[in-house]
Amino acid sequence: MTTTKGLEGIVATTSSISSIIDGILTYRGIDIDELAEKATFEEVAYLLWYGKLPNQSELDQLLSDLSANSAIPTAVIDQMRLYPKDTNSMAALRTAVSSLSLYDLSANDMSRDANVLKAIKLQAQIPTVIAAFARIREGKEVISPKSGVSIAENFLYMLTGDKPDKVAIEALDKALVLHADHELNASTFAARVTVATLSDIYSGVTSAIGALKGPLHGGANEAVMAMLDEIGSLDNVESYVNKKLENKEKLMGFGHRVYKNGDPRAKHLEKMSRALGEITGNMKWYDMSIKIEEIVTGKKGLRPNVDFYSASCYTYLKIPRDLFTPIFAISRASGWTAHILEQYDNNRLIRPRAEYTGPVNQSYVPIDQRS
Ligand code: CMC
């Protein structure tokens, strides 16, 4: 038996949703660079689910379905009021998404049509859950979703109660496009493993949220901002980063299992971070990030990943730090559900093996004879 720690380089399934070939990321064959400049998140979600870009009437139908499904049951809001106020936001999201299934009469309907509708419903409801949780913990009224607006606009509106400005909507929308899918990343794999037992789509997305929460995956964007806060100013960057490197500690937002010459999404977020810094008249987070990148790339050859510049972008958008990873979940819900649908369409139980390294030829020792 040969063991590959972390399944590095192992091809565990076939998929026609997204690809990473020679460092180029595509969704359904379209380069992420092109989608980042031209597509809306809703178009991308349609692309991931249906395998093609929507025409106008298909997009209108999707927008209307998303709007029609974006409210969440009062019971789930009431449960969220009972969560401890300092609950981790990803833990809150994981629990609330699991709860949503209890109020969906079609939760266990495994027909394809029902699962497609549940994918749309989850995509529509996840932003509502996150915004509601963020307001409840601050003792504020929950704001119901608006119809006829994009997911990015609705989320910012439900979070603050104010109409978000165009710059913020466009920036968030682009971030959602960039995070939507990423081949067999850890959370998507978790989702596929779960539903490959023929469990339901809510179980798959709940598993995925749990996997995304960790700092080696989606939790890295929040960890990057914690690092920027800790560093505090441009003057402290050099000594902080050098110390981390000397101590062989990881710098959050750098490195990637698949990309060894840079994450193609990072440059879009770097550009966005610079633009938002200029617009807000506060270059501090951008300047610090650029300097960190210079040192880490120069000394260690590690390049920033998608999470690195997301942190400063979301901070410029005045989003609380602990909602960064939940925003990743808003976007990746499209990829998770597309992969879940694909898994159901061509399912086989995912059940690898482990190489046993424990003791052999042991016997049962009665309790009174154990040391
Ligand atoms: N800072 C410092 N050293 C690093 C880093 C880093 N961020 N990433 C990798 N290395 C070093 C690591 O210490 C090891 O060195 P050595 O061979 O001397 O022991 C070498 O590079 C290989 O690292 P690894 O952890 O075995 O690589 P991996 O392919 O298992 O890990 C990773 C990929 C993303 C988990 C890792 O790069 C990491 O922990 N990065 C920081 C967390 C992060 O930013 N995660 C977000 C990933 S991208 C988006 C997403 O999925 O959410």
Describe the protein.
The structure is a single chain. With 371 residues, the chain is mostly helical. The protein has two domains: 15-167 and 179-214 and 322-345, Citrate Synthase, domain 1 (Orthogonal Bundle), CATH 1.10.580.10; 220-316, Cytochrome p450-Terp, domain 2, CATH 1.10.230. 57% of the residues lie in helices and 3% in strands. Helix 2 (41-50) runs parallel beside helix 16 (324-345). The longest helix is centred in the middle third of the chain and has 25 residues, at 112-136. The protein is globular, with a radius of gyration of 21 Å. Carboxymethyl coenzyme *A is lined by residues 6, 185, 216-218, 220, 250-257, 302, 305-307. Residues 6, 185, 216-218, 220, 250-257, 302, 305-307 line the site of carboxymethyl coenzyme *A.
Brief descriptors of the model:
single chain, 371 residues, Citrate Synthase, domain 1, Cytochrome p450-Terp, domain 2, Citrate_synthase_AS, citrate synthase activity, Citrate_synth-like_lrg_a-sub, 2-MeCitrate/Citrate_synth_II
Write the layout of secondary structure elements.
Elements: E1 18-21, E2 24-27, E3 30-31, H1 32-38, H2 41-50, H3 56-68, H4 74-82, H5 89-102, H6 112-136, H7 151-160, H8 166-179, H9 186-195, H10 201-212, H11 220-231, H12 237-246, H13 266-280, H14 284-300, H15 306-316, H16 324-345
Antiparallel strand pairs: 1-2, 2-3
Bound molecules: carboxymethyl coenzyme *A.
